[in-house]
Amino acid sequence: MKLALHTLLAQTWLVGRKTALEMLREPQLALLMLSMPLFFMLITALGYGSQPKLATYEVLTFLEDQAGGTVMQALEAQRYPDGRPVFHLTMVQGRLDAEPLLADGRAAALLVFSQETGGPLKVTLRGDATSMKFNRASTYLGRTITPLLDRLSFGGARPQQLVMVERPLFPRSRQTEFDLYAVGMMVFAVLLLIPWTAMLLARELRRGTLRRLQLTRLTSLGLAGGVTLAQMAGALLMVLVLLGSALALGFHAQGSLTLALVICLVLCFSAIGPGLVVAGFSRNDSDALNIGSIFTMLMVFLSGAFFPMPPTTLFYWSGHGVDLFDFLPASHAMLALNQVLVDGAGLPQVAFRLGLTAVLSFVYYGIGLWFFTRRHYRLG
Q: Which fold has domain 57-152?
C-alpha cells in the first residue's frame, strides 16, 4: 500500500513538472487565456466603475395638487444605510419643462401629483422605460409611494400592518456597479481552465505520447494528478493577477482577500473534472478548445456569473434551499465569492457553500477521471 502510494505521488510529481515546463515553453497560450478575462474586466471597469451601486436619483416633481407634499416629504426622508439620500427632488413648473431633462438623462423620473375633486391623490410616474436609471428609481419610488397612498386613501385612519426594514448584515463602504460585475469576470476567468486542461491532455493524444506514457505503467490517476498539480500552480498565479487587477481598477473588496483566494482555488479545482470530461470527447487540441469553450460558457451562464438565474428551488436541505443549477460547483462558488467580496461575509457565513463546492468538485473530478480513462487510457 505504501509502495503504491509512493509510486502514485512520484508519477504525479513527474507529470506535473513535465506539464509545467511545457506550459512555460508556451507562455503565449497562458497569456491568451488570461488576457481575455482581464480585457473584459477592464471594459467592465470603464463602463461601470463610475456608477454607484446605491445612487441618489434625480426626481422631478410637478404639483397639480398640494396634497402631494406629504408624499414628497416621505421621499426626501428616504436614506441608504450609509446615510445618503435615495432621491433628490426638484420641482418643475410643468410637464413640458421636464421632458428635456428626462430625454437627456439628467433626471431619472417625473412625478405628477394630481387629485380630482373629492377623489384620492393620484401619482403619475413618467420616464424613459429603456433607461436602467428609470427602472431602478421607479422600484424605489414604488416601495415608498404605494403604501403611503394606500394609507392616505383611507384618510390616514388605516394602520400600516406591514413595514419592511432593510438592514445590511455587514458594514459596507460606498460601492459601484463594477463591484458586482467584477466577481462574475473572476468566475469566468477561472472556468477557462476547462478548455485549457482538456487541451493539455488532448495534445498528448494527438502527439501519440499518451500511448507511450501508458507503456511506462503511468496510471491515469498519475497523469490526471500531474496535470492537476500544474494547473493549480498556474491557477494560483492567475487568481492573484485577477484579484490584483480588480483592486487596481477600483474594486471595493469588503471581506477577506485570503478567504476569497481560497474560494477561487477550490473553484479552479472544480474546473479540472469537466476538463477531463472534455478531453474524453476530444481527439486533438482543436477539439478540446472548441468543446471546452462550450462547457465553460454553459457553466458561466448557469452559475449566475453574468446575470442572476431565476430562483428554482427544488427542496430544502439543512435549512438551505437547493435550486435547479446547484449541481454546478460554480453556482456555490459564485455565491460564496460574492458574499465575501461584495457583502463582507466571513468563513462561518460561506462555509456551507464552500463545502458544497469542494464536494461537488471531487465528484466531477471522479467522473472526469473515469470517463477519460474509459475513452483514451486503455491498452489494446
A: D-Maltodextrin-Binding Protein; domain 2 (3.40.190)
